[in-house]
Specification:
Largest sheet: 4 strands, antiparallel
Helix content: 55-70%
Radius of gyration: 63 Å
Structural class: alpha+beta
Shape: elongated
Order of helices and strands: EEEEEEHHHHHEEEHEEH
Number of strands: 11
Length: about 280
Amino acid sequence: MLKGLKREAMKLMVDEESGVRLQDGKPVYVDDEGKEIAFDAPAAMSKIKALNNEAKDHRLKAEDFRSKADQYSQQLQELQSKLENFNDIDPRKAKRALEKVAKLDAGELLEMEKVEMIKQQLKEQFEDQTSELQTGFSAKEKEYQAQLEKYTETLSHKEKFIYDLMVTNQFASLPFITKNTTMTSDVAATMFGKYFKVETNDAGDTQLVAYLNGEKILSRTRHGEPAAFDEAFQILWDAYPNKEAYTKTTSGSGSNGNINANQPSNDAPGWDSFYTTMD
């Protein structure tokens, strides 16, 4: 339609005698130019249907195209994002590297295989040496442990020997025992020796230190210091509840007097009660 012109709708031609004018069974219309046109309704409907189907196909194809275009746009964005990771790569260096790889011949590839073989051999040698060292270390550790146990046992025997020697000598040289008791030094050592321990003082000297009821016996004259052997024995003796059974008694006349020694025996009072009371 030209701009400014108005096309009127076609008019159906009507005959006053027969009604609607027909041409080959088709109603006749007159356009705005006065031209008569026979309207084929079935053909028009068929054409309209065909055009509608064609338009539908075009619409579906357009929608499919838009969907694929969206997918391609998304893939393009993902590729651009991945390409950003290679911004620091120098294209010229990359090209030279690719050219070098392309020029590798069989000889160079063989050399590379030899390098890998040497690396594997070195790795296996290192693992074997490490295993040997671990095995040797375990054997040495067991050997040193056995020696340590042997030395510990020997040291324990020596310490016991030193203890027995020191205790026996101290009791044997203590005048109080022979002068005031009926016990021999070995009996006294058996009864009272377990209350003494061999210790080393601050000066590095070895000494016998007495304990009573789990507490170290301190000197009554040298405050804060362990009591010497004779003083410690006097304190232990005073604490012994049945000491009268082993105390010497004197009787008789004259200046010489007679000493009545009460010799102890295994069934004498105080043997069992001493260990119970003093611990």
